[in-house]
Design a protein that fits this description.
Layout: H1 3-16, H2 22-38, E1 47-48, H3 50-61, H4 66-76, E2 84-85, H5 86-98, H6 101-112, E3 119-120, H7 122-134, H8 142-157, E4 165-166, H9 167-176, H10 191-202
The structure holds calcium ion (2 copies).
Protein name: Calaxin
Pfam family, one: EF-hand_7
GO molecular function: calcium ion binding
Length: 206
């Protein structure tokens, strides 16, 4: 892209950005260009694919869970074409790094709603909890413990008692108790890795 093109892009992204300033947008566009160059010819010049996305989030934020990373990719890739464009990249990172509680509630709900049908089902809670807990647990019968956790979560969060969590259920529960935001497993960068990411990426211009 020409220098003028980049400048116009940065200006327009800065205008639409809720939480990043101009120099931060510039840094993220530079990082985007590096990633596109790494992504070979899949989406030449336009964006990068799932593999590059996963590697990047893995090394930047220590996110390793494939189920979570696949969901995060789908959330970033809003038009569902398998390619992360510069707009999708900046707007996605905005929620991860600077999101308000509202934005994060929406994001975490989308991660946990694995099949995207608008509800977090028992099975989805089970799968998420199993993924995030098994790594730490040496228990020989972990499934029973996880089933218990699912029932506890439903009891606490399923306000309309239909056996699954709607967005309204989830939102209300997290507003009452913020710690429930990542109730079914980590899906946001922890403070330490997001701070070091910002230091590394935004340092150039600040
Ligand atoms: Ca896309
Ligand atoms: Ca679902």
């Amino acid at each position: 892209m020409s220098r003028k093109g980049v400048k116009l892009l940065v200006d327009s992204l800065t205008r639409s950005s809720k939480h990043f300033n101009k120099s931060e947008v510039e840094c993220l566009v530079n990082l985007f260009d590096t990633l596109v160059a790494k992504a070979r010819s899949d989406f030449a010049g336009v964006g990068f694919n799932r593999v590059v996305f996963r590697d990047t989030l893995h090394s930047a934020f220590g996110m390793t869970d494939d189920v979570v990373l696949d969901r995060v990719f789908s959330i970033f890739d809003r038009d569902n074409d398998g390619c992360i464009t510069v707009v999708e990249w900046v707007e996605g990172l905005e929620v991860l790094l600077r999101g308000t509680l509202d934005e994060k509630i929406k994001y975490c709900f989308q991660v946990y709603d694995l099949n995207g049908d608008g509800y977090i089902s028992r099975e989805e809670m089970f799968q998420m909890l199993k993924n995030s807990l098994l790594i730490q647990s040496a228990d020989e019968e972990p499934d029973e413990g996880i089933k218990d956790l699912v029932e506890i979560a439903l009891k606490k969060m399923d306000h309309d008692h239909d056996g699954k969590l709607s967005f309204t259920d989830f939102e209300k529960a997290v507003r009452d108790e913020n710690l429930l935001l990542e109730a079914f497993g980590p899906c946001l960068p922890d403070i330490k890795s997001s701070m070091s990411f910002e230091q590394k990426i935004f340092r150039a211009n600040s």
